[in-house]
What we know:
Layout: E1 8-14, H1 18-33, E2 40-47, H2 51-61, E3 65-67, H3 71-75, E4 81-84, H4 91-100, E5 104-107, H5 115-128, E6 132-134, H6 142-152, E7 159-167, H7 184-187, H8 191-206, E8 210-218, E9 223-225, E10 245-247, E11 253-260, E12 265-271, E13 280-287, E14 290-295, E15 301-306, E16 317-320, H9 341-358, H10 366-385, E17 389-390
Parallel strand pairs: 1-2, 1-4, 2-3, 4-5, 5-6, 7-12
Antiparallel strand pairs: 7-13, 8-11, 8-17, 9-10, 11-12, 13-14, 14-15, 15-16
Helix pairs in contact: 1-9, 4-5, 5-10, 8-10
InterPro entries: Gfo/Idh/MocA-like_OxRdtase_N, Gfo/Idh/MocA_oxidrdct_glycsds, GFO_IDH_MocA-like_dom, NAD(P)-bd_dom_sf
GO molecular function: nucleotide binding; oxidoreductase activity
Domain Gfo/Idh/MocA-like oxidoreductase N-terminal: 9-136
Amino acid sequence: MTASSIPQLNVGLIGGGFMGKAHSLAYAAMPMFFWPAPAIPVRHTIAEVTDDLAAGAAARFGFQHSTGDWRRVIDDPNIHVVDIATPNNSHAEIAIAAAQAGKHILCEKPLAPTVAEAKAMYEAVKAAGVVNMVAFNYRRTPAVALARKYIEEGRIGKVLSFRGTYLQDWSADPSGPLSWRFQKKIAGSGALGDIGTHVVDLARYLVGEISAVNAMMHTYIQERPLQSGGADKLGASDKNAGGPKGAVDVDDEVMTLLRFENGAVGSLEATRNAWGRNNYITFEIHGTEGTLHFNYERRDELQVFFNSDPGDARGLRTVYTGPAHPYGEGLWPIPALGIGYGETKIIEAYDLFTAITTGRPVRPDFEDGYKTELIADAIVRSAQERREIDVESIGVPRETAGV
C-alpha cells in the first residue's frame, strides 16, 4: 500500500478541553505508530462553546476549521467522524444527531449520565448502522490486553474473583471549585461515572458480564466554591475559594461488591479523594490456576503467577510489555521503553479507523456503554436502598423491581 492509496477521513471534534487535547494528539500520531495506517485522520473542524474558544483550540490542536456551534460539525457533509469530548449531559443530543446524519462516532465516557439517554444513543447508532465507540481507553493498555489474552488462553484457569480500584486525589482539597464534575445535572454522578465506570469496563472486558451489585456511596465534601471562570482543570484551586459556595450533589466515593454471570465474584472501589494517589487503577484477578495483577501507574508491567510454573520459580513475577505483546508491533521496539496515556488514545484511534475502513466490529461500542450505565445505575440504586440489586432489574420501576 502506498501513501497515496490510504484513505483520508475528516474528523469533527466537539470539545477543546483536556480530552480534546488527548484525542487530537492521537489523530496526529496514529499513522506514525501504525503504518500503513487504516486511514489518515484529518483534523478538519473543532467546535467549542464560543467562536473565540474554538479558534484558539483549532490553532493549538491543528484543526483546519473552527466553530462555536457544534451543529455545524454535524451538518457538514465533509465530516466523516464526529468525536464527542464534551461534558456528560451533552453526549446524547450530539451523538443522536451525528448518527442520524450518518457520521461515525467516538464518544467519551461515560456514554451518558442516565440509562435512558444511553439507551437512546445505542438505539440511534444501531438504526443508523454507523461505527461507534465509547472511549474506555484503559482496556487498550498493552498489559491489560495481555491479561485478557492470558485469561482467554486459560492460563489462570477458571476466574474466581476480581478486585478493581480507581483512586485519585485531585478532589480531596475542599477549596477545589464546583466544576461540572460535582453537579449531578451535568455529570450524572461523581466518582462512579467519572472513574468508576472505567473499572466496570475493565471488569466486563476481563471477566464477563456483571449480574448484581451491593454498594455504598458517600460524599465527603458537601459544598465547594463556585467556579469563577475558565476551563475545568482537575485539582486546581479556584481564586474564588473564599467566596460563595454551592452544594455538591454527587458521590466522592463508591465501593461495591460484584457478582458475575459466570459465577465469579469481585469488588470495586473508586474515589477522587485519596491523598497521594494520582491515577491508581489496579486490578487483581484470581483463577483456579493462577493470578494476574496490574497497576496503571506501572503500566508497562503485568504481574503474573501460573500454577504450572516449576517449584523453584513460583511466585508473582513481572512481564514487561513490548513488541511481543498486544499492539506491540506499532509502539516501541523494546519492552518497558514506556507506554503513556497518549499511547492508549493512539491505539484507540487505530482501532476506530480500522473498524471504519474494514467493517470489522470494534469494542467497546455504544452497547457496551449502555450496559456499563445499567451497572452504574444499579450501583446507585443499591447504595440508596442498602441492598443487593440485580442489574437486569434496572429500567423496571422501583416499586416493582425485584418482585
